[in-house]
Amino acid sequence: MNNDNNEIYFSKDIKELVGTEYGDIEKHSKFMKLALNEAKKALDEGEVPVGCVIVHNDIVIAAGSNKTNIKKNATRHAEIEALDSIYLSENASKFGGDKLLSDCKLYVTVEPCIMCAAVLQLAKINIVYFGCYNDKFGGNGSILPVHSIDCFERGHPYNCVSGVMKDQAIHLLQKFYFQENKKAPVPNKRKRIDPDQMINNQDNSSIDQPIDK
Ligand SMILES: [Zn+2]
């Protein structure tokens, strides 16, 4: 599980890395802004706003935004969309997808989920920069450290840098959930049922059971 510098693959906040090659906030923010633009596109399309770009030698070679609703496919996360645009491009056939991606940085507004974290290992991405943490499904340290697990036969562990423009990423998510909450109907007050009454009732099927959601 060691990289070339004999260190465990890390997931660290960019502020911890200032002064190293990973901690150039100005440079990495420039690319994260482009990922945020992708996330804004997702927001405009009614998707959970997550966006990413893939960078090779300081040039953006792919971009993607979350399209799970539009494509009715729960796997179409921003990272998968961006990777597909490389695998399906002429560059992939010219350089080989894995060879190309092993020299690429991926910038994504929200920590990759466990699925995407594993896919990025298989794609042999060089490094991942992300904005805010994904507290429910994060695969770069929040829930599972998939980036650093050396268990995939064809995979390659990678380092992660968090906290790049995280406030902007969180702001977009808040905007999305605010919009969704406005659309949701006002819930009826739950009907409280005395458990003793339920036992005494001959026809339990007619009882209006509370549903937890
Ligand atoms: Zn994902």
Automatic annotation (TrEMBL):
Q: Which UniProt keywords apply?
A: Hydrolase, Metal-binding, Zinc
> Where along the chain is composition biased (Polar residues)?
198-213
List the CDD domains: nucleoside_deaminase
Q: What residue stretches are annotated with the CMP/dCMP-type deaminase domain? A: 26-151
- Region (Disordered) residue spans: 186-213
Q: Where is the signal peptide?
A: none
One Gene Ontology molecular-function label: zinc ion binding
GO CC entries: cytoplasm; nucleus
Which PANTHER family would you find in this protein's record? CYTOSINE DEAMINASE FAMILY MEMBER (PTHR11079), TRNA-SPECIFIC ADENOSINE DEAMINASE 2 (PTHR11079:SF149)
Protein known as: Adenosine deaminase
